[in-house]
Amino acid sequence: MNNEMKLVFKAITENESFARVSVASFCAMLNPSIDVLTDIKTALSEAITNSIVHAYPTKVGKVEVKVTIHGNNLTITVKDFGIGIDNVEQARMPFYTSKPNSERSGIGFTVMEGFMDSVEVVSAKSKGTTVIMKKQIVDAQVNVGG
Known about the structure:
By secondary structure, the chain is of the alpha+beta class. 33% of the residues lie in helices and 29% in strands. It contains four helices and five strands. It has a five-stranded antiparallel sheet, covered by helices on one side. Strand 2 (62-70) and strand 3 (73-80) form a beta hairpin. Helix 1 packs antiparallel against helix 2 and helix 2 (34-55) runs antiparallel to helix 4. It starts with a strand and ends in a 10-residue tail after the last strand.
C-alpha cells in the first residue's frame, strides 16, 4: 500500500492535538498495535511542540506535517519555516534546552528517537527546521497469540 497526506496549520498549541489525531487516524490503515500508535503520536507531539515553542519566538508561523506510507513503512515529516536551530547536534543532546528559564526539559529529540526507528533533523538559520521520522509497522493482527 502506498498513500500520503499533508497538513498545514498555524503554529499554535491548540493545533498540536488536531495534528496528532489526524496522523493517528491516517496511520490506522497499517493496523499498528495501540502501543505503536501511542509511540507515533508521542513522537509527533514532540516534533510539533518543538516547532511551536522554538521556531517562531516573535510571531505565529506555520507547521507542515506530511505522512507517507509505503508498504509497511511510515515516514512522518514535520517542517517549520522559523528561525532554525543553530547547532542541531547540541539540540539533540538529552536535557539540552535553548530556553533554560522555562519549563522545557530538553528531551524532545530523545523521545522521538526512542519511539521511532530513525530521526533525521535538517535545519538552516532563518529558513526553518525539518524533522523526518521513520517507523516500520508490523501488523498487530500478525502478532496476536504469539
